[in-house]
Amino acid sequence: MLAKEVKTGVMVVYNDAPCVIENISVQSPSARGGATLYKFRARNVVTKNKVDITLKGTEPLAEADFSRRDVTIMYSDLESVHLMDAESFEQYTVDREDVANEMQWITEGTTGIIAMIYNDECVGITIPASATLKITECEPGVKGNSATGRTKSLTLETGAVVHGPEYLSQGESIKVDTRTGDFLGRA
């Protein structure tokens, strides 16, 4: 596809790596005969690094052979996470360190997990924007502590630690924003 046809969210191949376009800015020429430049801010899907791409409007940019598949987590070990496609039952393996941030919000039975498949290989996963998790460890809640805006550390069933209001107690379920790790509310 031509650079002028690229939209945000499109997967392209740049320097032999899959990149997702996050931002586009157009720079018009200041002189006659000058070419319009398209500046793309992309993110390498494999390394998670930001990539800046500058092209003329008529220069080509290859679209990536990329798909998103609904998966379930079969099991995980110390090195990798094993996934199964919900429709075709194909199995994928991804390095645990590549998905460590996402794994802290996943429990057995978590739904809505999407595998990003590039050239028939899983390069990462995306998870729902919020997760419902049970508090396994925290300081005891005291009646009347809801009047202040103070927070305390809450250890969740996955081992993740978030900060939440003082009135919460062990055994309660809460909703957490998986992108930021913020407390959203009781579940």
From TrEMBL:
This is Elongation factor P-like protein. PANTHER family: ELONGATION FACTOR P, TRANSLATION ELONGATION FACTOR KOW-LIKE DOMAIN-CONTAINING PROTEIN. It holds the Pfam family Elong-fact-P_C. Residues 68-123 form the Translation elongation factor P/YeiP central domain. One of its GO terms (cellular component) is cytosol. Belongs to the elongation factor P family. It comes from Botrimarina colliarenosi. One of its GO terms (biological process) is peptide biosynthetic process. Keywords: Elongation factor, Protein biosynthesis. InterPro entries: Elong-fact-P_C, NA-bd_OB-fold, Rib_uL2_dom2, Transl_elong_fac_P/YeiP, Transl_elong_KOW-like, Transl_elong_P/YeiP_cen, Translation_prot_SH3-like_sf. GO terms for molecular function: translation elongation factor activity.
